């Protein structure tokens, strides 16, 4: 299915990004921009100038981009609690937080929990990560390996979220998640803000490869936080960039919401794109999705798999959530390139958000 919003073409976003975020990320161990790989065969296939894929398979040594949002959100939460300015060093925040006994509570189906656990350990603190009953043992081990306590909930991801939030209220700690509800917006907004580093890197890298910024950003969507960050950046910094978003057919809460014009929860089915398996768009993301998405498509697991294989044959190893962008781009182009404002000069960036899952990196 494909949804188009012609009004998004001229819509610009007024939100500004905190200039402290990129310098903060640069202070974290092992910071480096992730690669932006050119895909000349795909550019030829689609008849455009450049297709580039942002490869988030190794971000601070973790197999997804999530640590960008988790690190900034955890840091800001603690800094605010301690009334420390958002420009303080991580070492200063760690020192000030040392005697407070803060702990961090979150829920995850994989990458997010591992990222929060990593950040908690950088602050010398403990994370408690609530996970759904159905989670691979190896995934739990990877989260525990970051020093976190892993608590298996007798239920699904939503049950894990509720449990983490409940327990956090009884302890001197913080509930940190990337999902936003009407009553919980500040921390998810910091998560989204943290993703701005990825967008800034894309701008710089695209300019150096293609001589200018992207004409189209293709973003996978679960609850919409990453898409919110992409829209906030690209509809602000270069308002001529169009945004194409992609979600699984079996978890198409954004498609349902766009079609109804309001947040519309759905019941999700199974998908191999685990990170995109979300039944409700995030409360704070919704206005950005509604106004800033130019084109939205849903894809099947098979289409994501074909795209993952195509990328692998080109030497780019990206998991199903990231490969979904190539599948979505191909689908949108089949419907008509003019719908996404593409011509032979266009520069397209795909957000390849995760490493392949499998023996080494089996994270959802
Ligand atoms: C690998 C991967 N890509 C993309 C997304 C989509 O992010 P969002 O939920 O912010 O839309 C997720 C979310 O968990 C993810 O894990």
Automatic annotation (TrEMBL):
<dbReference type="InterPro" id="IPR036052">
    <property type="entry name" value="TrpB-like_PALP_sf"/>
</dbReference>
<protein>
    <recommendedName>
        <fullName>Tryptophan synthase beta chain-like PALP domain-containing protein</fullName>
    </recommendedName>
</protein>
<feature type="domain" description="Tryptophan synthase beta chain-like PALP">
    <location>
        <begin position="29"/>
        <end position="339"/>
    </location>
</feature>
<dbReference type="InterPro" id="IPR001926">
    <property type="entry name" value="TrpB-like_PALP"/>
</dbReference>
<dbReference type="Pfam" id="PF00291">
    <property type="entry name" value="PALP"/>
</dbReference>
